[in-house]
UniProtKB/TrEMBL annotation, chain A:
Segments passing through the bilayer: 20-45, 159-177, 183-203
Source organism superkingdom: Eukaryota
Entry GO MF terms: glycerol-3-phosphate O-acyltransferase activity
Species this chain originates from: Oncorhynchus mykiss (Rainbow trout)
Protein name, per record: Phospholipid/glycerol acyltransferase domain-containing protein
Cited InterPro entries: LPCAT1-like (IPR045252), Plipid/glycerol_acylTrfase (IPR002123)
GO cellular component: endoplasmic reticulum; membrane
Pathway(s) of this molecule: Lipid metabolism; Phospholipid metabolism
Automatic annotation (TrEMBL), chain B:
Protein's UniProt name: Calcineurin like EF-hand protein 1
PANTHER family: EG:114D9.1 PROTEIN-RELATED
GO biological process: protein transport
Domain of life of the organism encoding this protein: Eukaryota
Keywords noted in UniProt: Calcium, Cell membrane, Cytoplasm, Lipoprotein, Membrane, Metal-binding, Myristate, Nucleus, Phosphoprotein, Protein transport, Repeat, Transport
Start and end residues of each EF-hand domain: 26-61, 110-145
Family from the record: Belongs to the calcineurin regulatory subunit family. CHP subfamily.
Gene Ontology cellular component list: cytoplasm; nucleus; plasma membrane
Pfam families: EF-hand_7
GO molecular-function term, one example from the UniProt record: calcium ion binding
Compartments, record wording: Cell membrane; Cytoplasm; Nucleus
Length: 467, 182
């Protein structure tokens, strides 16, 4: 009985208060977030949040600009200050232009080689050092205005007290309130997914099982969407992928999967991982047929193609979701599509995903952050805002091979999403560029030199060729 | 990307670089951002591998020579000042600079400094002469395997014949300027 006599009445009060606040907290969570997620409705809270944030960002940028003007220097704006003055021309045109400017004589007697030819290669080389089209796709996009996150700030010096206070407030809100909320939701969503899909796995195969599996998947993905505070606008939903088709989209981060799968049901393709990912993958496949490969099978292209085509032929199975770039790109461009998924011959449903980087950059720079670090960054940004466009289905045309088909689809996605369409391979993130490109340049230049030689050799007697 | 560089460029440094190279404040900031994004090792200097990671530079036939131009004699690392100094050669000549004080030292992007940069791309051993061998080397880099040794040799011979004026079978800087005539 001894210890109870020392029982402090405040502890009792504290326990009661904690109990009440937890209950209130969870009720609010349930009512405003989880229940709408189950039924797929929305109260519009997130959009209101987004509008408020935008107003605050505009004010913040305005303040920074004013501050910079007071200190009398220009702000660093990544896209407005072009540093290279050039128009795209071909190798031949430019070299001829350089030669014309350099020589006083007429170029009818086109000489084969001029020492000034190196200026062309020299200039192109230095231009690519100052700014190139490829390496900037592998790091997060630079913002023109500041969104109160230190991670996206290049102009930050102490401009005004108000701005710093606002930033501090932002930190408190994001890390103190939003982050714990989101982490709770994320655990809930993933936990429910694993548990419910395992339960559904016990049902006999048939329409009931498919129905429940779809509902469970949708519900859990919607909870995950709310866990990231993702505000998604879907366009042209009449073009949504149907069974027996392949859905292709541009790839920016693992979150792409959550965004697409919360609006429709897909069969995922991927490599089996260990750890938590592996647990999720194994339980998902109990409820509906996803395509998971062992690490060793991934290299075998025929096996991969066979499994994919078997899947699409069975029209009771869900459309496959594939990201043909093969790696995460920073959402300013679309890089080369690998042709594997375009060889299968089924209908392709292209989807364009464009993130609005003002609220939080979704790009996963896998060389900079691991997965957990990345997810924490996502959950401590303001929000993930994106637009999804479902493009009309495409099929391979007569006389078109897989590579051309892939390029056509890529161009359509780039056009819709407002992204730059690049021919470069996303694999350049980690690997070296193939020598064949250099050889092409050399061939083009040699043609310039040798081409004029051939014209010249028509005038000389044939005997001089024999040695 | 830019915020990874914990050392933001200081105002004094920007002013010094401005004076030395003639780039504007925002151009310098922009190029500094570029420098840090290329600097994967995050040690404030670039190595040759950092340059070779740029695909458009790697497929340039003269890529290696251009990269070499950034590194001073015998060194393997270039810092931001050196980077800017080399890039300054390519800044376009602006009209308001043409009538500047003649006693001031020649700006980095003067016509003759630009030509010297190009000359040095040929003249690998820095003996102020482009020999037949050096010319052949550069030609070979630009055409790859598409032209035979003999043809290339005759192109080189013809070029030296046309440019060489003092008969030493190599091209000096002045002969180069006259030939290029820009």
């Amino acid at each position: 009985m001894g210890p109870f006599l020392d029982f402090n009445p405040f502890d009792n009060l504290l326990c009661i208060l904690l109990g009440i606040s937890f209950t209130v907290w969870f009720t609010l969570l349930l009512v405003f977030i989880i229940v709408p997620a189950i039924f797929g409705v929305s109260f519009g809270i997130r959009r209101l949040y987004m509008k408020t944030l935008l107003k605050i960002f505009e004010w913040a940028t305005h303040r920074i600009e004013r501050g910079a003007k007071d200190n009398n220097h220009l702000l660093y704006k990544p896209y407005s200050n072009a540093i290279i003055a050039k128009e795209p021309t071909s190798l031949e045109e430019e070299i001829n232009e350089i030669r014309r400017r350099g020589s006083n004589r007429d170029l009818d007697s086109a000489s084969e080689f001029e020492m000034s030819d190196i200026f062309y290669f020299c200039r192109r080389g230095v231009e690519s050092i100052m700014d190139d089209e490829v390496t900037k796709r592998f790091s997060a996009e630079e913002l023109e205005s500041w969104n109160l996150l230190t991670r996206s700030n290049y102009n930050f010096q102490h401009i005004s007290l108000r701005l710093t206070v606002l930033w501090g407030l932002g930190v408190v809100i994001r890390y103190g309130f939003l982050l714990p909320l989101r982490v709770t939701l994320a655990f809930t969503g993933v936990g429910l997914l694993v548990v419910l899909t395992s339960i559904i796995g016990f049902l006999p195969n048939g329409r009931m099982k498919n129905f429940f599996s779809e509902q469970v998947h949708l519900m859990c993905y919607r909870i995950c969407v709310r866990a990231l505070t993702a505000i998604i606008t879907y366009h042209d939903s009449e073009n949504k992928p149907k069974n027996g088709g392949i859905c292709v989209a541009n790839h920016t981060s693992p979150i792409d999967v959550i965004i697409l799968a919360s609006d429709g049901c897909y069969a995922m393709v991927g490599q089996i991982h260990g750890g938590l990912m592996g647990v999720i993958q194994k339980s998902m496949v109990k409820a509906c047929p996803h395509i998971w490969f062992e690490r060793s099978e991934v290299k075998d292209r025929h096996l991969v193609a066979k499994r994919l085509s078997d899947h699409v032929e069975d029209t009771t199975k869900l459309p496959i979701l594939i990201f043909p770039e093969g790696t995460c790109i920073n959402n300013t461009s679309v890089m080369m599509f690998k042709k594997g998924s375009f060889e299968i011959g089924s209908t392709v449903y292209p989807v364009a995903i464009k993130y609005d980087p003002r609220f939080g950059d979704a790009f996963w720079n896998s060389s900079q952050f691991g997965m957990v670090n990345y997810l924490l960054r996502m959950m401590s940004s303001w929000a993930i805002v994106c637009s999804v466009w479902y493009l009309p289905p495409m099929t391979r045309e007569e006389g078109e091979d897989a590579v051309q088909f892939a390029s056509r689809v890529k161009a359509a996605i780039a056009r819709q999403g407002g992204l730059v369409d690049l021919l470069w391979d996303g694999g350049l993130k980690r690997g070296k560029v193939k020598d064949t490109f250099k050889e092409e340049q050399q061939k083009l230049y040699s043609k310039m030199l040798v081409g004029t030689q051939e014209d010249r050799s028509l005038d000389t007697p044939p005997s001089s060729h024999l040695n | 990307m830019g915020s990874r560089a914990s050392t933001l460029l200081r105002e004094e440094e920007i002013e010094e670089i401005k004076k030395e190279t003639g780039f504007s404040h925002s151009q310098i900031t922009r190029l500094y951002s570029r420098f840090t994004s290329l600097d994967k090792g995050e040690n404030g200097t670039l190595s040759r591998e950092d340059f070779q990671r740029i695909p458009e530079l790697a497929i340039n036939p003269l890529g290696d020579r251009i990269i070499n131009a950034f590194f001073p004699e015998g060194e393997d690392q270039v810092n931001f000042r050196g980077f800017m100094r080399t890039l300054a050669h390519f800044r376009p000549i602006e009209d308001n600079e043409k009538n500047k004080d003649p006693t001031a030292s020649e700006p980095l992007n003067s016509r003759s400094n630009k030509l010297l940069f190009a000359f040095r791309l040929y003249d690998l051993d820095r003996d102020d002469k482009i020999s037949r061998d050096e010319l052949l080397q550069v030609l070979r880099m630009m055409v790859g395997v598409n032209i035979s040794d003999e043809q290339l040799g005759s192109i080189a011979d013809r070029t030296i014949q046309e440019a060489d004026q003092n008969g030493d079978n190599s091209i000096s800087f002045n002969e180069f300027i006259k030939k290029v005539c820009l």
